[in-house]
Amino acid sequence: MNQESFPANAAPLDTPPLETPEPLSADEFAELGAILAYLRARDERIPVWEFCEGFMVALICCRRQIAPEEYLPVLLVTPFANAVQQQHFMRLWSRRWQQVAQALDCKISALDDAQAYQPEVVDARAEQAALSGPEQAALAGQQAASFGQRWAQGFMAAVAAWPEEWAGPRNKEALKWRTAALEFVAALTADDNDAPTLSPFTDDHGPLTVSTQRMKAFGDALWAVYNMREMWCSLGPRIETVHKAAVPGRNDPCTCGSGKKYKKCCGV
After folding, report:
1. Where is this region: Disordered (predicted)?
2. Positive or negative torsion for Cα 66, 102, 105, 46
3. 228-267 pLDDT, tens per residue?
């Protein structure tokens, strides 16, 4: 964790109290993207928003509540330009966090439910297909990310950053659920190499960029997220095992180093 990337005099990273959040507008998502693009110009390791959202969802589903001071340097490995930029990013981030958390806590029967979590993902292959001829030529040999791929990569990056928080529970049934759920998300980190059969955001006129198998896998991953959120909420934070120090026998040497027997020293 690159904690030194964020100076001690940086703006506070506190998450505001939970309340009914105002959904982020398209312009506000664009503002998040612009901040990330600015940071990425200084450090190419800075991810796009879709990756950040997947990372956020994993934090929301995590068994332990991880503070912004702990997770932000892992996600963004370079400091913000100034306190104003950081505060603006965190205000938008916190609103999106609260919206996602509330959606994942809703009881839904279908992913197209109005209250269901709707990931902020893009169809990168459709965007690439919409580029002009010269722009496409400049990207020759570079395949755009598959649908949902960067979101899943962000989720799994958070899992990898805190493996102890994602270790399997002792309950065998819960362990089986957790393992299956993570496998559904991890499957999305791979490329979609099946034949494209649909366009995820347009009915008739968009280019075919996503396979039927991919859309099913994406839906499976979203249900897996709901399952993980519910499971960790029910199990609660991990409880550390407390090991009681061994007590010496009455006639054993005292552990304080006095040279006396325990019964005539600290064991009195």
Report:
1. 1-22
2. negative
3. 998 877 655 544 433 345 566 667 676 666 666 655 676 6
Residue 254 near residue 248, CB atoms below 8 Å: yes
Q: Write the DSSP assignment of the chain as a string of letters.
A: --GGGS-TTSPP-PPPPP--PPPPPHHHHHHHHHHHHHHHHH-TTPPPHHHHHHHHHHHHHSSS---HHHHHHHH--S--SSHHHHHHHHHHHHHHHHHHHHHHTS--SSTTSTTS-------HHHHHHTS-HHHHHHTTT-PPPPTTHHHHHHHHHHHHH-GGGSSPPSSHHHHHHHHHHHHHHHHTTS---SPP-B-TT-SSSS---B-HHHHHHHHHHHHHHHHHHHHHHHH-SPPPPPPPPPPPPTTSBPTTSSSSBGGGTTT-
CA–CA distance, 201 with 9 (Å, rounded to integer): 43
Whole-angstrom CA distances from 69 to 10, 100, 169, 202 are 11, 20, 26, 39
Which amino acid would we find at residue 239? Answer: I
Query: What is the Cα–Cα distance from 80 to 175, expressed in whole angstroms?
Result: 39
> What is the pTM (predicted TM-score) of this model?
0.79
Six-digit token string for 265: 């020293």
Position 43: which residue type? D
Question: What type of residue is 16?
Answer: P
Q: How many CB atoms lie within 10 A of CB 158?
A: 23
